[in-house]
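Progress narrative, work stream C.
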Amino acid sequence: MTLHAAQAPEGDDVATDKVVGTITSAAWSAELASWVALAYLHRSVADTGPVRVRSGDGVGGSWAAEVRPLPLVTASHPG
């Protein structure tokens, strides 16, 4: 799966959609109740903010996602 700029091109056209990263792995997080993924990002992408996910074949349009730094959750330590 590939990552693309936050704004989709007119008609969500895969041919003109600029790739800004590639997802390397993904899994469901029960703690966050959401999908999480690790990805390589182009250096032009901000440390946080919106991106879009598109399947490798480009079929089916794109989905909203968000870039976040690790860790996604802070560990709580017993006092």
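Work stream C, second folded protein:
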Amino acid sequence: MPTSSARSVVTPLVQSVAFDADAEGAGEARYPRHGNTPNAEQLQRRLAALEGADAAMLLSSGQGATACALLALVRPGDHVLASAWVYGGTRQLLTRELPALGIDVTLVNPTETRVWRRHLRKRTRAVFVESPVNPTCRVLDLAPVSYLTRERAIALVVDSTFASPVAFRPLEHGADVVIHSATKFLNGHHDVLGGVVLGTAPYVEEVRQKMVVWGQAPDPFAVWLLERGLKTLDVRVRRQSETAGGLAEWCAGHPAVAAVHYPGLATHPDHAIACRTLDLFGGMLALELAGGAEAAEHFVSRVRLFRHAPSLGGVDSLVSLPHRSSHALLTDAERAAAGIAPGFVRLSVGLEHVDDLAADLAEALA
């Protein structure tokens, strides 16, 4: 890294996979797959500070982060209790891959009374939830869940990708582990794939060991780009949240929209929880179109400023159909149980002017 007499304002990119070994042979060698290169170590400290965590570990994708986070907690014969309202890729990991490794998983409706206590087992080692939920924007109350997990010494794992640390920090609400798809809000420019796991230093070291073995480390250039994106996280998320709130109110009055899912609206089922736990309502919202699936297909073919693409959290506004992207592998019945109706459309609000975005929606809904 640069000396103090020649220190650059922007962190230099160390695009190397080989580093001089310690002359005395002490310590672990620097290597990108080990998560200990200069760019990775600096960014991991910044991410930990944002979440209020002891440590953080960067991985090559959000899916890789979720996998290594859980593999660091459970072993064959253990049990994971998870919310059924999760990203489609996470659901596949929980229902197919973990059981193939001898790990039992139970999915539950997270809003049912006493559902967590009712389904706990002696071998339950982790409770997994996503909040806010992709794509329905439901907001879960972590308080009763964390009370139970702490009582039983079980790890509470929270995927907080939809919120970002600007809007929600799960560790402040009883979580033990936080996961982000860094591809989304943390980077914010639709040009980096990455993930991060945050928690105590001993636990994050366990995650790092899994990452080393499973090969989930990010490329140095991706890490450098992610640090660049992180510098504007606060201003981006605040602008996105403000614009999303305005669009949600506008859509709520449109005759072609049967329902608007945005936690900032008083009509949202979790509005009170969101007001109590979120610092911002976020840049994600969803619409249910009155015309059903046909109207949704027509809508995404007509938007112009919103781009039809399966990602979120960036500077460019995007629209997607969960039944064709994030939740494509679910059955119709599973999507219905998760609150994803046939006319469901997910919107990720970027940095464009709210009036321009509203005009784009108006034309597409006409």
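The first strand starts at residue 55 and ends at 59. No further action is required on this item.
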